[in-house]
Inverse folding.
């Protein structure tokens, strides 16, 4: 159950850190935006290590679905842009894919 909390918090800190770099490099804000960006991205990495999973790659793949949902939420709440229908279709496909990775049967190769 804590995995969902870690996934959500990791997504929040990753998006915030990347957004701070976006503000500096794309919006012409002060280079002081680098400090919170680095702190936020460090917290993201630490939080993602709290996920209970046998393999890091599988945890990161499942996290990708959560990240995409959080990114569209960020778009709506922070950037105040209404997500498009195609955004929601993409979210659904990604969450479905993450669910298969996380909960699907463990099929082996040939």
């Amino acid at each position: 159950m804590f995995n969902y909390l870690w996934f959500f918090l990791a997504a929040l800190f990753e998006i915030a850190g990347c957004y701070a770099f976006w503000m500096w490099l794309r919006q012409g804000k002060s280079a002081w935006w680098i400090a919170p960006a680095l702190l936020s991205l460090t917290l993201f990495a630490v939080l993602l290590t709290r996920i209970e999973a046998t393999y890091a790659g599988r945890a990161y793949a499942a996290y990708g679905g959560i990240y995409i949902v959080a990114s569209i939420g960020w778009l709506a709440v922070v950037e105040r842009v209404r997500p498009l229908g195609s955004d929601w279709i993409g979210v659904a496909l990604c969450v479905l894919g993450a669910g298969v990775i996380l909960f699907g049967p463990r099929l082996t190769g040939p």
User: Anything to note?
Assistant: The chain has one domain: 2-103.
